[in-house]
UniProtKB/TrEMBL annotation:
GO terms for molecular function: kinase activity. The keyword Kinase applies. It comes from the Bacteria. Gene3D superfamilies: 3.30.420.40. This is Transcriptional regulator/sugar kinase. The keyword Magnesium does not apply. Belongs to the ROK (NagC/XylR) family. Keywords: Kinase, Transferase. InterPro entries: ATPase_NBD, ROK. It comes from Acholeplasma brassicae. SUPFAM superfamilies: Actin-like ATPase domain (SSF53067).
Length: 291
């Protein structure tokens, strides 16, 4: 069976693994990202892992990455300061020239969406909207198993939609929930799990904060539903690990939809969690090189 190497590049860590042609991860690990040092150093670290995994005799390399990525040429078109000197790099040519392997690269949220529509929570959906909710809010659009990437490879930047003269993610990201909770409870709050623990303990202030978070998040999802009328909306991000998250969020979303649209709107939590970027990157590679 053929093997392929998969990488998911983030600003703080890089996940990597070995995947088979049937999209089964047979090995996975992670290492710290040298994003603040520079994009070149990230790629050099990837080359080290490629050499380390050479015993698998990989047929190609599939990459998921933060940033706006030209998935056809491999050029990084835009990126945040979590990875410096990344804009303008051509990841495909950089790695292909040094490994002589076929290389593909795709934006990380787009990769998550491809994973979930092929082998995840939105499998068999003909029209899927995907969102990741965390430090910010990312998004992707998949129609008939094909990504809608946009004219500048920037489609799905739902976090930058404007509500009340603010970015959507400035009101509805998990990081904002944590920030608001820290203003009330102090440094006892480290993350979203801490906030929801207080919520589950029926703390009145935590209940108000979480309900406001759900309400803000549901406004954007409802608007996306009115605009696109997707078959499935997949929500990813660490907070979706909460068992009741989707049901709680769905009640806020449905309250904002028309009775007609409620019948045709399904919210689901992403299935593959931290592996979704790597698996989705492979499906993009497969679409490009394996027929």
């Amino acid at each position: 069976m053929n093997h392929y190497l998969v990488f998911d590049i983030g600003g703080t860590e890089i996940k990597y693994g070995v995947i088979t042609e049937d999209a089964t991860l047979i090995f996975k690990d992670k290492f710290p990202s040298r994003g603040t040092t520079g994009g070149k150093y990230i790629l050099e670290d990837i080359l080290e892992k490629v050499a380390l995994l050479s015993s698998y005799e990989p047929k190609g390399i599939a990459i998921s990455s933060a940033g706006v990525i030209n998935s056809s040429t491999g050029e990084v078109l835009s990126a945040t300061n979590t990875i410096v000197d990344y804009i303008g790099m051509n990841v495909i040519s950089y790695l292909k020239d040094r490994t002589n392997l076929d290389v593909s690269i795709l934006n990380d949220v787009n990769a998550m969406a491809l994973c979930e529509t092929n082998v995840g929570a939105a499998k068999d959906s003909k029209f899927t909207i995907a969102l990741t909710v965390g430090t910010g809010i990312g998004g992707a659009i998949v129609l008939n198993n094909r990504l809608i990437e946009g004219n500048g490879y920037n489609a799905g930047e739902f976090g930058l939609m404007r509500f009340n003269n603010q970015d959507y993610e400035q009101q509805a990201a998990t990081s904002i929930l944590v920030k608001n909770a820290q203003a009330v409870f102090g440094d006892t709050i480290k993350n979203g799990i801490d906030v929801f623990n207080l919520y589950d303990q029926k703390d009145e202030q935590a209940i108000n904060l979480v309900n406001q978070f759900y309400d803000n998040l549901s406004v954007g999802i409802a608007n996306l539903t009115f605009a696109f009328n997707p078959e499935v909306i997949v929500i990813g991000g660490g907070i979706t690990g909460r068992d009741s998250f989707i049901n709680e969020l769905q009640s806020h979303v449905m309250a904002k939809l028309t009775p007609h649209l409620r019948k045709y709107t399904t919210l689901v939590a992403a299935k593959h969690k931290n592996d979704a970027g790597m698996i989705g990157a492979f499906f993009h590679y497969k679409n490009q090189y394996i027929r």
